[in-house]
Amino acid sequence: MSHECVCARQLACHTMPMGRVSFYGVTTTGIFCRCGCPSRTPTPEHVVFFGHVNDAIERGFRSCKRCRPDQEVSPHEAFGAFVVTQVVALAQATPQSRIEDIARGLALSKRQLERIIKAVTGLSPRQYIHSALQATQ
């Protein structure tokens, strides 16, 4: 399967490519995104794929304000990393707190916290907090 076919499939499914970051530009808007951007899926005939950010900029595309492909880490990934570090900090500060209390302290719902922790670490919040507290002792 060609690289463009793989990128088109990832674009349609809003998934990130394995091992490398790919970018796509939409010719009708002049905007380029990371593959995996949660923005609306463009019409395939208006899509151009790039291997690097500079390729898109040289062709006159501007970066998406949602996925920020011109930055090293996407806002979504940065927020996930922030939440994970804050969960550990809150759990250390108040060891007897429940998951609901930690979520409330981060201004998130319990379900949002569970989804973020699971996506970043692969563990449930309770499992992650337990392993993180074990590692610091």
TrEMBL record:
<keyword id="KW-0808">Transferase</keyword>
<dbReference type="Pfam" id="PF00165">
    <property type="entry name" value="HTH_AraC"/>
</dbReference>
<protein>
    <submittedName>
        <fullName>Methylphosphotriester-DNA--protein-cysteine methyltransferase</fullName>
    </submittedName>
</protein>
<keyword id="KW-0010">Activator</keyword>
<keyword id="KW-0489">Methyltransferase</keyword>
<dbReference type="GO" id="GO:0032259">
    <property type="term" value="P:methylation"/>
</dbReference>
<dbReference type="InterPro" id="IPR004026">
    <property type="entry name" value="Ada_DNA_repair_Zn-bd"/>
</dbReference>
<dbReference type="GO" id="GO:0043565">
    <property type="term" value="F:sequence-specific DNA binding"/>
</dbReference>
<dbReference type="Pfam" id="PF02805">
    <property type="entry name" value="Ada_Zn_binding"/>
</dbReference>
<dbReference type="InterPro" id="IPR035451">
    <property type="entry name" value="Ada-like_dom_sf"/>
</dbReference>
<dbReference type="GO" id="GO:0006281">
    <property type="term" value="P:DNA repair"/>
</dbReference>
<feature type="domain" description="HTH araC/xylS-type">
    <location>
        <begin position="96"/>
        <end position="130"/>
    </location>
</feature>
<dbReference type="GO" id="GO:0003700">
    <property type="term" value="F:DNA-binding transcription factor activity"/>
</dbReference>
<dbReference type="InterPro" id="IPR018060">
    <property type="entry name" value="HTH_AraC"/>
</dbReference>
<dbReference type="GO" id="GO:0008270">
    <property type="term" value="F:zinc ion binding"/>
</dbReference>
<dbReference type="GO" id="GO:0008168">
    <property type="term" value="F:methyltransferase activity"/>
</dbReference>
<feature type="domain" description="Ada DNA repair metal-binding">
    <location>
        <begin position="23"/>
        <end position="70"/>
    </location>
</feature>
